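Protein 1 of 2
SEQ + STRUCT:
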Amino acid sequence: MQVLFLALGANRRRAVIEESRRVVEHGGRAVVLVTSRSAWSAETFAPGVRVLALPSPDTHWPLRAEQVVLFRGPRFVLARAARVLKRSPKRWIGAYEKRVANRMHRKVFLPVYRKAWPDQQKRALAAQVRAGGPYDAFVVTDPISFPVARELIGSERVAFRIDQLVTPANSDKGKV
């Protein structure tokens, strides 16, 4: 049995680790899908548990272009100008980012980006789920993952705990 654990919110870590270990012990394949590996870096999974991280949303070209235009370019220019005038570059850069760049990002860029690419994150998540292969069951491990699971998977073999996926025929044998 191949089981996908959706752990996008990094809640219930101990339960995810324990349940994925149980799946592997009973001969199944466990794949844990997380938002970023850094949130799970202190955790140790059982051998055979595959941990996949979603690609960073910053890898989409419009977001990278915006970072260059709104943040990196002006940061470079302001740092050089501040040094020429013997001022604190941190202060100038901080003021620019607070008063201009962050506001432009929130009020101009993000609304346009969300209208132009409304399902970018969903597509990346769907691609990651497809890359793992066909799954027999899905375990949604935290509240953040529920809406994602509903859109991606529907209702086929979705559970909050691995115990909910144990069928009565397999329960007496201890199989998952």
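Protein 2 of 2
SEQ + STRUCT:
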Amino acid sequence: MPESTMTPTPPQAIRPAAWRYLAFLLVVGVCLAGARLAWKTHLELSCWGAEWPHLSACGAMTGATPHERWQARVQRLSKEPGETQTLIEALVFAQDDSLTTSEQRSAMLKEAVDRAPQNVDVLRIQANSAIGASDWPVALSALTRLALYHNDPAASQMVAGLISRAGEDVSLQGALITSIETNPAWLDPVVFAAPRAEVPMAALLPLVQSVMSSPGHRLSPRTGQFLIERLNAEGWWEASHEIWRHLWQRFIPFVFNGDFEQTFVRGGFDWEVGDRDNDHRSGAMVDRTYRQSQRHSMRVRFTGKPIHSPIVWQYLMLPPGHYRLRIKSQTGSLHSDNGLSWQLLCPEDDTVLASISPRGGTAQQWQEDGVDVLIPEACGQPARLVLVPAASYESRTGMRGEALFDDITLSRLPAETDTAKESLP
């Protein structure tokens, strides 16, 4: 049997389809590895950015207890020292005395202030640290920025509390004056926060007066009106009237808006309507109406229902002396037994110093009445000009018809003009 020989089989070339399959597997492997890395990186960034704070993986990464969270952020900062948000979070946890020393906290706070000077958490920690050290300029800088730019009510109340303590601390008082002169805008939120902080409005008067006396600065109407209402309630009438004059920035007569050419401003030194509803349910409805001369007058319409007395009134800041009160009226269409009476009252005990009871005339003709009045030294401030039913029983029984009033003025008599001016300076 012949000896058989074996011929080796030449290697076969890999087919193109196999190369494509291998390339596909390689691409899939690279993509899966990249996706896994991307997912890990994205998860890490999301956890540290608090985008997915409730994932269990985030808790393991950023820590569960305060101590673990502090350690996690320290480690994170050693790896990523430029992450400002992580620095701020570490600063917040560092306020726990058991985790850090005061030197560490001070160093972290300084770095955080340099990186994020307007961050809410940084400002709050900076304010607390400065208050503890009685560093009033730094404390006020942080607190006023929180109040003004972050609408932080706690910061506004804290500033109000510091203002109430300023009389006991000269350095605090000086820092407040410097701060308000630098940026008066922060006074607005502090004024509205003062009642919640149980700080009397009178405590804010030095700063309020500083703003009013600064060239180019004025109280906003909303803030000024709030101050006026609160100061009136606290009995600071002269300071309140000073703010009233500051808001109007014009000549203020003894009787404000006596020509009724502008709408009534409540809560100050303009006309006040006794019945707050002032509608069809009221016994007396008060409004402003046009006269034939295209000027306004005050109209009081009576519905026959019980009347809230006084019908209208105004607080008057009057220095002691002799005055003449003048009032124009139309009461011809008023149906009443005794009519109406304008009375000037002393605030001490509501003593009637003078009264005018318009009577007669027609519904088309104006009648002018006047009376001289002495404001005694003991009367105090403020006097009050009121419109009431001349007979008190008509407050209960009501009236019908209407009455018009205009050009109400109070002037110092000529013999007294050398001792007082009609408008206080």
